[in-house]
Design brief:
Structural class of chain B: mainly alpha
Largest interface: A-B, 91 and 115 residues
Helix content of chain B: over 70%
Number of domains of chain A: 1
Distance between the termini of chain A: 57 Å
Number of strands of chain B: 5
Helix content of chain A: 55-70%
Strand order of the largest sheet of chain B: 1-2-3
Strand content of chain A: under 5%
Largest sheet of chain B: 3 strands, mixed
Order of helices and strands of chain A: HHHH
Radius of gyration of chain A: 20 Å
Largest sheet of chain A: none
Shape of chain B: elongated
Radius of gyration of chain B: 39 Å
CATH architecture of chain A: Orthogonal Bundle
CATH topology of chain A: Helix Hairpins
Oligomer: heterodimer
Number of strands of chain A: 0
Distance between the termini of chain B: 109 Å
Shape of chain A: elongated
Structural class of chain A: mainly alpha
Chain lengths: 118, 954
């Protein structure tokens, strides 16, 4: 099971890194979303993998539970990463509407830049 | 060592508190403003005088306010003889300056600001001399640099003022940085940052191998502050400040801070060859050089500035000698220099104020026109020259006495000769001040007709001039203060000194005589010497400094332009590569523990999910240019991760992930409407290959790390949470109890962040739509890619039916959250999805018209509810966010639980709901600008339309 989780994290990280190295805001946002998945799963996995023992206290259970702490951390991380994505989307959108393209680098010539500056 | 009943803390804080007042009081008039500035100063001085008798009896008063004992930070203050002397000078002269400035500043100057800066500076200075903790001292040290920057640049309209202020800040600030390093080394050697401990550890410090670096760094701080050669150049440029500032900062207080520090550290740092050669030599050079330049300055304040540099050099040299008698002379000279130099600055200010010029060559003959000023100026200048019966004579004699038997590199002549030369030059420029300003014929070309100023203006220098004569005639008056301060510097004098005027015919008397005679001769020859001086080329400190600053700026600009070229993909690549390499190096370094866990077997169905996830990820990468399809595929990834969470015992995470997934996709879809639907191919094949290599390396690194991590056990604190969840937090869903109880503070912070993100988006959009982007939106035609049937009947009906059901589910998830999977986060997301469906199906305006509660208010209410719930614990005397719970039995309902944590969770719920809605609502608001029409009817669908259309077609 560990191999499955680790390879998924690896794939998501690789995909995310490749995408954040692209030059368009949209790809970077998607890349960051992939990276968020990877990081969340990574933190979650740091509590070790346990099957069928959710951290819900049960008087009649076997007394074994998975580690609840990383879960609590990841839960808020998921919600916060949504907030972050939303802000990024808004900035990218603003930048596109202002300047006429959604390139993220400043080194290339801007198309339509004068139009936005007026 | 006795407690001061917190008096010291109050003394140090009073000026800072008082600084808030003058800026406001200026509305009540200039006199009221000055009085309210004097009040805290006077109060602090009174408190100091109450403590003074104890210090004079040899006690050391201590007051401490413990702050962070773990890292040795506490606001501890100490008052010994040296501190008393300096604090008395700072507050006493402060009072005189406040009075003087009241009359000096003109009606156009913002006087409230001036007094505020002055009090800030006074507080910082007091902090330096009263601190018992060197870290605290450093903070106050930097504060003096900052507040003096404000004071020097007070006349903002003068370029010299601004440049002088910048230069002073750069030089003293840089020295301050060096001193921080030195002080930290010192603290490390001793193991304590308390001055009292450090002063006891002199032997250990001098023996340490870190003594030299610490010494040099601390001296850099002291030398820059006290304008020692080669850092002396900032002081004359700081003379662009108003004269009260020059009199206060540049004669009495700030420039003495360096001297104070050397005196403070004297028992610890002095007594070595390094100390003698660095400090005494620097002081000697500064003394002679400063005096020489002063002689040829025509600007009254520049003359005084260089004379101050020279006298500071004298003090430094005396401390550098390292003998107790020299330290005693230094302490005495600090007092004397203060009295005559502050009086002289104020005199120069008066002359400038009355004649509108400070150029000595345009002055002369003022003796008859300004008799009061003449008397004050002459008394002070004679003291500066070191003429008997004035106080400057006494300490100068002591200095010459010490110099007369000091050997430098086994040469017995060099120090006495140079000291005499310094004294001689000092006599010359002092007498020049008197002769060329006050004597000579009355001229008829003064820029303004001079006369004596009002009494309020000359009262302060007159008071100091009286002190000059009193001390000069009866040095026994200040003897106890000098001795107690010198005791504090040296750690206890070995002999009982006696200050007197006549010491008999000593070498010092001869040297003094030579100095006076030589000075008079030099003054007589001033005119030809001045021509020679002007003809000689000299290095100009300001241009060197400017070139240095310019070079530094150019260098840092070159570095930042090369490393920070605006290509964010480049930064990200550098960052990722660096991280991967560091991770690799750490792994190569070894130290990985052995594997302690086995693998959990993988059932076949998991492979299916894994395959889906992998294929989806690869597809996202491969077709990220087709933006719409990317969004569809990314949904699969989120779904697979949710399923994974379910399988791996994390139901709460699964619920959260799947609802966040939904809103994220909606958000991106909404945004995609306004940005291009495809990305062009931009990067070359080589670059794509390079990026792929980086990405694969990063992925392999992170995956390997995760794998290694999962197969090893570590100690965690999770057991505590499992054990105390029910008994301490009253819930069986441990994850939820952690969120709302154990780590409630974190959650509280997180919902605030989320709320801020929501508000940020709203604000960004407001700004965006008001600008050119709004116009662009209005002028863009989006009608081509719009659906003909914007609000399909089936969807409208279905979402309307689903709203109450979805709301019910949300409430259910919220209520069960404490004991079963669910809680405020998930419930907030579920309800926002239910609401979003209405926006999507029935249109923005229709839904908006039915919205009763503002989302902003919802965010605020949520945060306030969570905060108040947390604060409620204070009422029970518990720390913030301690939860309470109890079980209630209300027939006929079953027993149920009431917990404050549920109320906190309600705050979380409201904030999440408000923030998510505000974000998506903001995005959809763009549609209004893009010219979308508003549907007035509940549904866009009008069957009669279709009937009439069908008829037409027939």
């Amino acid at each position: 099971m560990e191999l499955v989780v680790a390879s998924s994290v690896a794939a998501l990280t690789a995909g995310g890194v490749y995408l954040i190295l692209r030059m368009r805001a949209f790809a970077v946002i998607v890349g960051l979303a992939l990276l968020s998945y990877a990081v969340n799963v990574f933190i979650f996995a740091s509590g070790r993998l346990v099957v069928n023992e959710p951290p819900i206290l049960d008087k009649y259970g076997d007394g074994i539970y998975t580690d609840p702490l990383p879960q609590a951390l990841v839960l808020t991380a998921i919600v916060i990463s949504f907030g972050m994505t939303a802000v990024l989307v808004m900035i990218a959108l603003g930048s596109y509407l202002e300047s006429g393209d959604d390139r993220i680098d400043l080194d290339g010539p801007r198309t339509d830049a004068e139009d936005g500056a007026q | 060592m006795t407690s001061g009943g917190n008096f010291l803390i109050i003394i140090a804080l009073l000026p800072f508190i008082g600084a808030l007042v003058p800026g406001v009081m200026i509305r009540a008039g200039r006199n009221a403003c000055a009085i309210f500035t004097a009040a805290p100063t006077l109060l602090a001085l009174t408190m100091l005088l109450i403590l003074a008798p104890r210090v004079m009896n040899g006690e050391v008063v201590h007051d401490e306010f413990v702050w962070m004992p773990q890292i040795g930070l506490s606001a501890s203050f100490m008052l010994d003889g040296l501190g008393l002397l300096f604090a008395g000078m700072i507050l006493g002269v402060g009072l005189l300056i406040i009075l003087y400035a009241r009359f000096y500043l003109s009606g156009e100057d913002p006087m409230g600001q001036f007094y505020t800066y002055l009090l800030l500076f006074q507080g910082a200075m007091l902090g330096i001399v009263l601190s018992d903790n060197i870290l605290l001292l450093l903070i106050f040290w930097e504060l003096t640099s900052l507040s003096s920057f404000l004071l020097i640049g007070y006349w903002k309209h003068l370029p010299e003022g601004r440049q002088g202020a910048r230069m002073a800040l750069a030089v003293t600030g840089a020295g301050g940085l060096a001193m921080i390093g030195g002080m930290l080394i010192l603290g490390n050697i001793v193991g304590s940052f308390n001055l009292s401990d450090i002063l006891q550890a002199g032997d250990a410090i001098r023996a340490s191998e870190w003594y030299m670096p610490a010494l040099i760094l601390i001296l850099l701080g002291a030398f820059t502050k006290s304008a020692q050669f080669p850092f002396h150049f900032w002081l004359p440029h700081a003379m662009a400040a108003p004269t009260p500032v020059s009199a206060y900062l540049h004669s009495a207080t700030m420039v003495k801070a360096g001297v104070f520090l050397m005196a403070r550290m004297w028992p610890v740092l002095s007594g070595t060859d390094a100390w003698f050669y660095i400090v005494a030599t620097t002081g000697l050079v500064t003394m002679v050089l400063g005096a020489l330049i002063a002689l040829f300055k025509d600007d009254l304040k520049a003359l005084l500035a260089f004379s101050t540099v020279s006298h500071l050099g004298l003090l430094t040299m005396l401390l550098g000698f390292g003998t107790e008698a020299a330290a005693l002379a230094a302490v005495f000279h600090i007092i004397n220099h203060l009295t005559f130099k502050a009086a002289l600055f104020m005199t120069a200010g008066i002359i400038d104020h009355e004649t509108h010029t400070r150029d000595i060559k345009r002055l002369g003959g003022l003796r008859r026109l300004m008799p009061v000023t003449f008397v004050i100026g002459t008394v002070a200048a004679l003291s500066m020259a070191g003429i008997p019966l004035f106080n400057g004579f006494l300490s100068k004699e002591m200095m010459l006495e010490e110099a007369s038997h000091t050997e430098w590199w086994q040469n017995p002549w060099i120090v006495p000769a140079l000291a005499t030369l310094g004294a001689l030059l000092s006599v010359a420029y002092s007498l020049r001040f008197i002769a060329h300003v006050f004597f000579g014929p009355v001229r008829d070309d003064y820029p303004s007709k001079p006369h004596d100023p009002p009494a309020g203006m000359w009262a302060s220098p007159a008071f100091l001039a009286v002190l000059v004569i009193l001390i000069g005639v009866m040095p026994v008056l200040v003897e106890p203060l000098v001795i107690v301060a010198a005791d504090a510097v040296t750690g206890g004098l070995d002999y009982a000194p006696h200050l007197k005027i006549w010491h008999g015919v000593t070498p010092a008397l001869w040297m003094s005589g030579i100095a006076v005679l030589g000075g008079i001769i030099l003054l007589a020859l001033h005119a030809p010497l001045d021509r020679l001086w002007l003809a000689t080329p000299r290095p100009e400190a300001k241009s060197i400094f400017d070139r240095l600053v310019g070079g530094t700026v150019a260098l840092s600009r070159a570095i930042s332009e090369r490393s920070h070229n605006g290509a964010i993909s480049r930064y990200l690549a550098i960052f990722v590569v660096t991280t991967v390499i560091s991770g690799y190096l750490a792994w190569r370094g070894g130290g990985m523990p052995v594997q302690t866990r086995g693998m959990i077997p993988i059932p076949p169905v998991v492979w299916v999910g894994w395959m889906l996830l992998l294929v989806a990820t690869i597809s996202v990468v491969l077709m990220h240019r087709d933006r719409f399809r990317t969004l569809v595929v990314i949904g699969i990834i989120g779904l697979m991760i949710s399923v994974g969470f379910v399988y791996l015992s994390a139901p709460d995470l699964a619920l959260t992930q799947i609802s966040v997934e939904t809103v994220t996709i909606m958000l991106l879809l909404l945004a995609l409407h306004y940005i291009p639907k495809t990305s062009p191919v931009e990067s070359s094949g080589g670059r794509r290959f390079r990026d792929a290599v980086i990405a694969i390396a990063a992925g392999a690194g992170v995956g390997g790390l995760a794998y290694a991590f999962m197969l090893r056990d570590v100690e965690t604190i999770s057991e505590y949470h499992l054990a105390n969840s029910y008994t301490g937090g009253g819930g069986t869903n441990v994850v939820n109890v952690i969120l709302v109880d154990f780590r409630g503070y974190d959650t509280y912070g997180e919902i605030i962040v989320l709320g801020i993100a929501g508000l940020t988006i709203y604000a960004l959009l407001e700004a965006l739509l008001a600008g050119p982007a709004g116009r662009r939106l209005r002028n863009t035609d989006y009608s081509t890619d719009r659906s003909k049937d914007r609000h399909p009947l089936m969807m409208v009906v279905a979402t309307r039916l689903m709203l109450p059901i979805a709301a019910m589910v949300g409430i259910f998830i919220f209520l069960r959250g404490h004991n079963e999977p669910g809680g405020g986060f998930v419930a907030g997301l579920v309800i926002s999805i239910a609401l979003l469906m209405q926006y999507m199906a029935s249109g923005f305006a229709w839904t908006q018209a039915r919205q009763r509660i503002e989302y902003h208010a919802m965010i605020g209410t949520g945060v306030v509810i969570a905060g108040l719930t947390g604060a409620g614990a204070w009422l029970a005397g518990k720390p913030f966010l301690t939860s309470a719970f109890g079980y209630v039995h209300l027939p006929p309902i079953e027993e149920f639980e009431l917990a404050t944590a549920a109320l906190f969770d309600l705050g979380v719920f409201l904030t999440v709901l408000g923030a998510v809605m505000l974000m998506l609502y903001s995005l959809s608001r763009i549609a209004r600008y893009a010219g979308e029409t508003i549907n007035v009817e509940p549904m866009d669908y009008d069957p009669s339309d279709r009937v009439s259309q069908a008829r037409k077609e027939e």
